[in-house]
Amino acid sequence: MLLRCIGSINYWVEVYSKEQVTLLTNHTFQKQSTLSQFEIVNPNGRQKLSIPTVKATRKGLYKSVAIDYSTNWQVEHWRSIENAYLKSPFYLYYGYKIEAVFKTNQTSLLDFNLALFKTIKDCIKLKSVVQIDNETSLYFEEMSADKTIVYPQVFDTKLPFEENLSILDLLFNLGPETLDYLKQSRYTNP
Q: CB–CB of 147/189 below 8 Å?
């Protein structure tokens, strides 16, 4: 399984379905993909956030891609997340944990994504054993998007339900019920 940036809900359904998760890191980097992007929903609808990367490092392997800190992207990303989820029921319980990762200055995109993965795994209390495989070689492919089961969202009185956002949407809206949702989705979308 590939390590994504935060990961969509469908990605985490797949993670949940495995007792042992092996994260493969020896693959090509694909620009404008879920390796460096994730989606949230704000009062205006879907918003895609992208981690900036150093251009010279993008043409090689994912594990070699460096994060570009020439802009203040961390503050901008966190403001977007905060504006989207501050009023959600569980932002107070999990937001500070995710924010701590955004405040770190990881050198590589892989390290940043791995830190986010571990933090989210802890937040949702996922018990899967995780291993990193830096040797197995493969070519990057996007995941297909299964239909997401409807759950309450922050702006659901104003906007229609937005499917398969990042796991942050589920975590901030359902909190400790996130794992139950992943379990239910697993059996609904085999």
A: yes
Calculate helix-pair angle for 9-16, 167-174, nearest 10 degrees.
Answer: 80
Q: Is the pTM of this model over 0.85?
A: yes
Q: What is the CA radius of gyration of the chain?
A: 16
Give residues with Cβ within 8 angstroms of 176, minimum separation 6: 90, 125
Neighbours of 69 (CB within 10 A): 13
Q: Provide the strand spans (E) within the chain.
A: 20-27, 37-42, 45-50, 129-138
In DSSP notation, 127-177 reads --EEEEEEEEEE---PPP-PPPPP---TTTTTS----S-BHHHHHHHHGGG
In this predicted model, what pLDDT tens digit does every residue of 6-58 receive, in sequence order? 999 999 998 998 888 888 888 888 888 888 999 999 999 999 999 999 999 99
Q: C-alpha distances in angstroms, 167 versus 46, 73, 105, 152, 163?
A: 14, 20, 22, 14, 11
Q: Which residues pair with 149 in a beta bridge?
A: none
Please tell me the distance from the alpha carbon of residue 36 to that of residue 66, in angstroms, as a whole number: 11
Q: Which two tokens stand for residue 35?
A: 């390796």
Burial 122-135 (b: 16+ CB within 10 A, else e): ebbebeeebeeeee
Amino acid letter at 94?
Answer: Y
